Amino acid sequence: MTDFEAAYALWVALGTLGVAQYAAVANGLWGIVVLRRWPNATKVCSALIVVGAFAWFFISEDRNQPDTGYGLDGVEQARWFAVAATASLLVQIGVSSIVNHRWGASHGWDPTEERWPPAGLAWLERTTFARALAARMRAVFGGSR
Amino acid sequence: MDGAVVRFLNSGVGNVALFDWLMNVLVSDYFVPVTGSLLLVALWMTGTHETRPLNQVTTMITAGAIGGANAITTIINGIVDRPRPFVDNDLTLLFYAPTDPSFPSNTASVGFALATAVFLRHRRLGGALYVLAFCWGFARVYAGVHYPTDILAGAGVGIMGALLAATLFRLFAFVPSYALRWLRLVYAA
Description:
By secondary structure, chain A is mainly α. Chain A is built from 4 helices and no strands. Chain B has a single domain, classed as Vanadium-containing Chloroperoxidase, domain 2, CATH 1.10.606.20. The longest helix of chain B has 28 residues.
């Protein structure tokens, strides 16, 4: 990994952190919000992280480097974006699942009444990603009853 | 005419440092693609139980549109081997000297594919992305790496690519809906 690739990946990861946390708060997906108790602070911090990441990337050095040399071509950009954004989302999911673990217990799904837990991001309005996925796994592998 | 427009716009380089810095950021290979991609991440998560899947399909269409527009541009680049404007004109480059063909502009095709695909569902967000795509194209001409007709052709390719992707997704709607159903089971959609 070159310095340029590392800087690009860090920029994307921070940008994804800010954008995903802001979108999660704005859409009530509290299970993946790291600072769930402080929604307004989360919005402000998210916006600052995005703006700061963009400012740092473009001010710290000249980023107009040849895409055949030190810079990144389209395929490399797509690859590093996917890696950095996925890593950022996984970290957010992991951290938010830990800090919201107790809150996520009252998720409104009773496995003794319904075999399958709710599907989709909408359930993350009431529980954490880890709890949702664990419930799904238990239902699939027959351990929910 | 094409060369005269580039020379006229490029003659502004060096006059206002702040404007040049802004153009330097806008003209970059990274600013618009990353901004657009981050907006798609937000769009994926946005909406209610009913509207979120539609936004997620829009995100998929946009990814397909960008890929399609890129492929069409690469094919045309191979056929029409037009040199960059700085080869035939005395210009002050605000960007590195690209070695690939000038016509059509790949950046314009990507920018306008992104804007059109989003515009089909979200007029305001799509409109903002059209402005961003236009600014990206303008910056490329100002920086001396594209002729205006490169940008116009790239915009055309991008718009056509997005409409084609939207049509294909409508014809084969079972593919994204099947993918979304699986992604919903693991809380990724």
